[in-house]
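[Automated response] Your request has been received and processed.

Submitted sequence:
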Amino acid sequence: MKIRLIAIFLCLTLLLMGCSKKKGENEGYQNPEEQGTTADLGDDNKSFGESLDDLGAYDGYFEGESTDIAVECVSGTQGAYKLEGTTLTFTGVGEESVYSISGKLRGNIVIDVGESYKFDLELHGLSLVCNSTNPITVISGDEVAIKAKKDTKNYIYDMRSAIDSTDETLYSGAIHSDVDLEIGGKGELTVVSENNNGIHSKDDLQVKNLTLLVACIDNSLKGNDGVEIEGGNTNLIASGGDCIKTSNSDISEKGNQRGSISIVGGTHNLYAACDGIDAAYNATVDDSTTVLNIYTDKYSNYSKEVTATSSDANYIRFTSNAYYYSVKYYNSDTDYVWVNAEYHSKVSGSRSNYYYYSYPKMPDYAKVQFFIYEAESQRGQDSV
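Generated structure:
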């Protein structure tokens, strides 16, 4: 039986600024002066994050029933929508189309415009509250964009109970898309998901030049294939899971690598009970103007569950408790030491369990390898 070698790169960055790369003659070299700076945040017991009320998360919430909305075709196919009960559906476009919506709706919005044309939904001061299903569902569209227009504040509230994660007919995100989705605009957008996820695309998710607040239980932003954030100002809060996440890491039919997360420009505050950034393939932070603050576990005021940590230990996190781990510290082939990682704790999000294993720090060694074993394998070796 062969064991599997894991290369794990661990990095806790509380404040990262100016992360543009400067490479020398050797590929991968990065001038230390160009790596950005970290901030001294003071006492190790300090946590961060204003209350949701202070952030204005519920400023657009309203009680009672309402279908007091105005829908307008800005360009493209006229009359490509219908309001049935409390469900507003966009469908039947015959060309690239842009629609605007404003007002109050206690209900949900469905975008199902086919696969041939681009579709933009402009928010001009919308408060959308839904108790029975996810507030916005994008079923089809060549490319779909939801944009908060300049000088407007827009609010989306998912007030459902936690959904059954095994029921594929239910969508966990307050905004869910089956296709590539862009969230953008020069205005403000707030998404609150009381018991589920924030914004989820089964393909790629882009966030561009937007003032965005997402407060949820598990994933704030998830694009199965990729997530790109360009400019803007974001506050992402995941009180039981990850802020930014991808899940696929294969190659697409067009030859594109899936699973990447990219952040370019803007100011972004991430508060997560688990990971600030969880990329299936890789994550890059670029542009000299980028400010990225990541507060995880006990450093986030919003965390529902936290883990006790020690300054003398490091931690391995995995989504299964079926395996065992050893760590090989070494300076050379003859100067090394093995240590075993022991079970430490479990953290549960609304849809994921994370298992933590602790192992002692060994500062006298310059390199480290991580090994994962099945139950019948002997730990502390790298041959069988």
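Summary generated for your ticket: The mean pLDDT is 87. The longest strand covers residues 118-130.
If you did not submit this request, please reply to this message.
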